[in-house]
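In the current project phase, the collection of sequences with tokenised folds has grown. A sample record is quoted in full directly below:
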Amino acid sequence: MVKVAYIFPGQGAQYVGMGKTLYNSFPKAKEIFDQANDILGYDIKKLCFEGPLGELSKTVNSQPAILVHSIAALRALEDSGKDFTPFCALGLSVGEYIALVASGAASYKEGLKLIQQRARFMEEASKQNPGKMVAVMNVELGKVEEICKEAEAEVANLNCPGQVVVSGSPAAINKVVALAQGKYTAKSVILNISGAFHSSLMLPAAEKLSKEIEKVNIKKPAIPMIFNATAKFESDPAIIRKNLVTQLTKRTLWEESIKLAAQKGVTTFLEIGPGKVLKGLMRRINPKLTVQNFDTVEDFSAVKTTA
């Protein structure tokens, strides 16, 4: 039997119109969006469906929006009669919280409220410690780490071969770009992110989040989860709490996490939620792995039953 993993996207995957076709086609998806408005206390549905993009892309809105859309898509998939039995679940950054809900480790309501708090804390930390993120292309990790040391920046994401994402103050990131170009003629891409996520500049957010996360009823996941901070399977709620806080200030190990799932025999990854960002990363990690997307109704009709 083919082994399947659920994967969930991170911030940046949002787009205007996200979830609208699911809402109009699947009662379970409609229910998830309608509940979200009550849980969050504002009209996230309208923001997802109509935008504007600038408002939707704010950290405080995009993180809850991605969780809502992804869980709506998952519930529609589960209700569709397609026979998927996932071997494991994992998500990139925000996506890890979606995996937490998908695996049954946290309820939808608690997961959504927690991500709302996380997003708020991250936005506050970004104002307190302004920062940027940049993807350095085609420079090996050791050399990027040397650049970071010189520029006083930090490696934030190891997403796929040929790309190292770095976080730091605006001045530090400008220096990283200059050093990468000067030393290795390397291309760098500044990310459309409002802060230096997954770095020590997020410590104020991590301190607040650690207090809030203790109030959440986190259970042992019914679907095994691989975590960003360690690239390991974890099931102990205490370790899960620690990992969720740690990933705010430390590098995320996405490439390593996907390789672990593949080592365990997973060959098909179902990207559930907005966009196809993870599919692009997966092609670079291992082009032999199959990735199927579930974002819109059209994607849903194209998804094949593989387990």
